[in-house]
Design goal:
Elements: E1 7-13, H1 20-28, E2 35-42, H2 48-58, E3 62-67, H3 72-82, E4 87-90, E5 96-97, H4 101-109, E6 115-124, E7 129-133, E8 147-150, H5 171-176, E9 181-193, H6 205-224, H7 230-251, H8 255-275, H9 288-302, H10 306-319
Parallel strand pairs: 1-2, 1-4, 2-3, 6-9
Antiparallel strand pairs: 4-8, 5-9, 6-7, 6-8
Length: 326
């Protein structure tokens, strides 16, 4: 009888004492048990390692790797270097898996899928469901953790370091390296939103990082010789830029900061759409209603009417039954 393939689950952790035990148990309690859990502690100083050590004493599938604080990109890279599995999965230390996460993925892997993309659910620290995200080809390019990958998808790929935006530049390349992609429509990953999340802290550098992330994405595409449908790629990049533009406009405190962020993102977006995607639009949208929203928004922002532009975006989102970008 053939041995089931080993899956390596990579969990970066930093000062995660409040949530990490639940995350660990959600991995160890998987119905697919042929796994190793690599926890890369990124210099925690408040009891996280003690919780990991306690869990490690009762289950030898846990391997703890300790680093000085370098960020989650460096932690994930270390996990990839140390992984023994034929397949790779990721989980954040404040999230958790459904108990059948790995089993559902391996069923599709047995059918020849090199990358499996799952539906996921966002929730807050009060366990209130915010919304579910269905897997689609466009959505499959985004986060690293709602997927199961054949290890070869990550050959010659690494996460950027010293950046808050770490998934966008590499996940599309890993997904694009797969010969066959499978989709799981039920919810198997639970993603926590809470106030101290690093991805929710905003300053003017968010706009600069958004542009740098796009540049790194194109560099990785060239390095790995991965190509995408141009329409899908245009929508993916423009949705990403729009999301960060919205965040900057919503959370930056001064008009000068908002103007600077707007100029950084829209100047890059306009040049990219003209030179790469053969479009005159500043931010390409997937529908006429969203394109109208983008055009009106950028016109108002360009004129300095930031609050009015945000009001327009949120009003149109409600009108067309969609949430504003978070």
């Amino acid at each position: 009888m053939m041995t089931a393939p080993l899956i390596t689950v990579i969990m970066p952790a930093y000062n995660s004492v409040q949530y990490i035990e639940k995350a660990i148990k959600s991995v160890l309690n998987q119905t697919y048990s042929q796994l190793e859990l690599l926890i890369i502690d990124d210099g925690s100083n408040e009891g996280t390692r003690e919780i990991i050590n306690q869990q490690q004493q009762s289950d030898d599938r846990i391997r703890l790797i300790c680093l000085d604080n370098q960020g989650s990109g460096a932690a994930r890279n270390e996990g990839l270097r140390r992984a023994n599995g034929e397949y790779i999965a990721f989980i954040d230390a404040d999230d958790y898996y459904d108990q059948n996460f790995l089993l559902q993925g391996m069923r599709l892997a047995e059918q020849g899928c090199d990358c499996i993309v799952y539906n996921y659910q966002r929730f807050n620290s009060d366990q209130e469901t915010l919304y579910r995200v269905e897997p689609t080809p466009l959505k499959s390019y985004s986060a690293v953790w709602n997927k199961l990958y054949r290890k070869e998808c990550w050959d010659n790929l690494s996460f950027p370091q010293n950046m808050k935006i770490e998934d966008f530049e590499v996940v599309p390349i890993a997904v694009g390296s797969a010969k066959k992609i499978g989709f799981v429509s039920d919810t198997f990953y639970y993603y926590r939103i809470h106030q101290i999340s690093i991805t929710h802290q905003t300053d003017i550098n968010e706009a600069r990082e958004a542009v740098k992330a796009c540049q790194l994405l194109f560099e990785n595409m060239k390095k790995k010789a991965v190509s995408f449908n141009q329409d899908d790629l245009a929508l993916y990049i423009n949705s990403f830029l729009y999301s960060h533009l919205y965040t900057c406009m919503s959370r930056l405190s001064t008009k000068d900061e908002k103007k600077a962020a707007f100029n950084i993102i829209t100047t890059y977006s306009k040049a990219l759409n003209k030179q790469v995607f053969n479009s005159a639009k500043t931010l390409v949208a997937p529908s006429k209603s969203k394109q109208l929203r983008n055009d009106l928004m950028t016109t108002l922002f360009n004129a300095g009417y930031f609050n009015l532009g945000l009001l327009l975006v949120n009003s149109m989102a409600k009108l067309f039954g969609k949430r504003g970008v978070k």
